[in-house]
From TrEMBL:
Any one Pfam family match given in the protein's UniProt record, by short name: Integrase_H2C2
Name of the protein in its database record: Integrase catalytic domain-containing protein
UniProt source species: Cucumis melo var. makuwa
GO biological process, one term: DNA integration
Gene Ontology molecular-function annotations: nucleic acid binding
InterPro entries: Integrase_cat-core (IPR001584), Integrase_H2C2 (IPR041588), Retrovirus_Pol_polyprotein (IPR050951), RNaseH-like_sf (IPR012337), RNaseH_sf (IPR036397)
Lineage of the species this protein comes from: Eukaryota, Viridiplantae, Streptophyta, Embryophyta, Tracheophyta
Length: 211
């Protein structure tokens, strides 16, 4: 039988420890079960603990306007369609000089790949698509990006032509057009803030923990 002190210690380890990613209450209790913890009030204790986490409260999304409906891209099988997006420039550069995060999410499985970048070059983006999508998961049917020059250029066009997949472009002012990628980017931006050191500049080393 868990006492109060033991349960708080277990919750802290699951929520903010080595394997914790500052999950919400329902996800936290699921993580506790995976770690083979259980007590009668574990679900409610998990919800209460997550609500009181200072890092979660401080870095939570602050909604300034009513949510807009997203326009999801429907995928019929894993790795058929990906949403590619760029986060940055990030105000606090990493110790290694990174200012951006390039991330891609599979529309079917919600699997994510992400890398830090010092600068955004078309060569970096093309190489990311080739090594982190095509070589790992096969040639996709389509990739959705915003219509900016970093993600939409002649090098990407040549990559599409070579591997026979399509690039769909949403307006840079219409984030709903690539809704899943945009929604994940909010999560990606908030999670490292909760788990990085006090200097806030080791975030490039903690991206994997946030995925």
């Amino acid at each position: 039988m868990f006492g109060k002190e033991e349960s708080i210690k277990a919750l802290n380890e699951a929520h903010a420890g080595v394997y914790g990613a500052h999950q919400s209450g329902p996800k936290l209790q699921f993580q506790m079960r995976r770690m083979r913890y259980y007590w009668s009030k574990m679900v409610q204790d998990s919800i209460d603990y997550a609500k009181k986490c200072k890092a979660c409260q401080y870095h939570a999304n602050f909604i300034h306007q009513p949510p807009e409906p997203l326009h999801p891209t429907v995928a019929s099988w894993p790795f058929e369609a990906w949403g590619l997006d760029l986060v940055g420039p990030i105000t606090s550069k990493s110790l290694a000089g990174h200012s951006y995060i390039l991330a891609v999410i599979d529309y079917f499985s919600k699997w994510v790949e992400a890398i830090p970048l010092r600068e955004v070059k078309k060569e970096n983006v093309a190489n990311f698509i080739r090594t982190h999508i095509i070589y790992r998961y096969g040639i996709p049917h389509r990739i959705v990006t915003y219509n900016g020059r970093q993600l939409s250029n002649s090098m990407i066009d040549k990559l599409c032509e070579k591997f026979k997949f399509k690039q769909y472009k949403s307006s840079i002012y219409n984030v709903a057009g690539n809704g899943l990628a945009e929604a994940f980017n909010k999560t990606l931006c908030s999670l490292p803030k909760k788990i990085v050191s006090k200097s806030k500049r080791d975030w490039q080393e903690r991206i994997g923990e946030a995925l």
